[in-house]
Amino acid sequence: MMNIEKIELSTLIAGPCSAESQEQVLECARSLAGQGVKVFRAGVWKPRTRPGNFEGAGDKALEWLKAVKSETGMAVTTEVANARHVEAALKAGIDMLWIGARTTTSPFAVQEVADALRGTDIPVLVKNPINAELELWIGAFERLAGAGIKRLAAIHRGFSSYYERIYRYSPEWQIPIELRRRIPGIQVICDPSHMAGRSDLVPLLAQMALDMKADGLFIEVHPDPAKALSDQKQQLTPQQFREMTSKLVYHRETKPADQKQMQPLRNRLDDIDLQLIQDLADRFRVTERIGEYKKDHNLAILQSDRYKAISDTLTGKGKELGLDEDFIRLLFETIHAESIRCQINKKNTI
Ligand code: PEP
Ligand code: MN
């Protein structure tokens, strides 16, 4: 069990992708102070997927963040990826650090950062690894906790996928849900900017994140996104940021009275779920009998034509009933895969 303490977080952490100049950083900070933003973000060292892009202003940008702190009173945070970054950021009095998605994928780099942090009590936010590998994310928390860092929180920034999707990085909401289950009490902040990759989708994802109980939002804002040196397409203008925050719906705590109101519906769900399990068990018993027939009569287990016909009929029926086509297809792919597995097992054990 990891010893994790809550970080004093305001809901909103915002600022430019990269600190580009003192003017840009201060202009951005002035537009955010007083907008409910208590922590200002800006990348000083930028890990770029391909070489030749802007790699951050480097150490001198730490001075700009110090200026933000003294002028606006906001706390400041930046990304660190190695021991030298950590030393420079600590020396500059940066209030909070984050580990980037590319760094979380590298146990050597995370360990180096953790070792450099040993003996400090600075809060650290850990972005999910760029690939959908929960164990790497958990491993990073373990390495930091192992170095004595107690105030830790997660940033959910989405996962890369090979295929072009609507979002730049796919949310895979089930992964942070599982993270919360594996590290009870961990705060999860959502970064809809990197998820979306497009400024127009940021408000939608920000609201979805709040609906999924995000503990905070981590948003990229630039005074003039079109001129940004990194992540141009996804940064909001201060005006867009204001519009978004004025529309976000924050949910209140669920009270016992709400639980009571929802209980009859929940009871119905429980009955339906039990029935689903019963039906699945019956279904697999039938599957087994078919498996025995196939074995006795020397037939192949996989009957592709039949599977395609069933899948089409069921997705059609599902659609008629208002169910999502992809969901039904996936559900029956899973059930069918399990049927095949049962029949293969049966064949090999008899
Ligand atoms: C960032 O927050 O600007 C950043 C580099 O993010 P990520 O590590 O999620 O790509
Ligand atoms: Mn960025």
Task: Please describe the structure with a list of short key phrases separated by commas or semicolons.
13 helices; elongated; 10% strand; 350 residues; alpha/beta; binds manganese (II) ion; 2 domains; 8 strands; TIM Barrel; single chain; binds phosphoenolpyruvate; 8-stranded parallel β-barrel; Chorismate Mutase Domain, subunit A
SSE string, helices as H and strands as E = EHEHEHEHHEHEHEHHEHHHH
The CATH class of the largest domain turns out to be Alpha Beta
Q: Main beta sheet: strand number and arrangement?
A: 8 strands, parallel, barrel
Total beta strands: 8
Detail the poorly predicted runs: none
The count of domains is 2
Spell out which ligands are present.
Answer: phosphoenolpyruvate, manganese (II) ion
CATH architecture identity of the largest domain: Alpha-Beta Barrel
- What is the 3D form? elongated
Give average pLDDT, whole number: 94
Q: Given the helix and strand composition, which structural class is it?
A: alpha/beta
Percentage of residues in DSSP E strands: 5-15%
User: How many H/I helical runs?
Assistant: 13
Rg measurement, Å = 25 Å
CATH superfamily of the largest domain: Aldolase class I
CATH fold-level assignment of the largest domain: TIM Barrel
Task: Bin the helical content.
Answer: 40-55%
User: In what order do the strands lie side by side in the largest sheet?
Assistant: 1-2-3-4-5-6-7-8
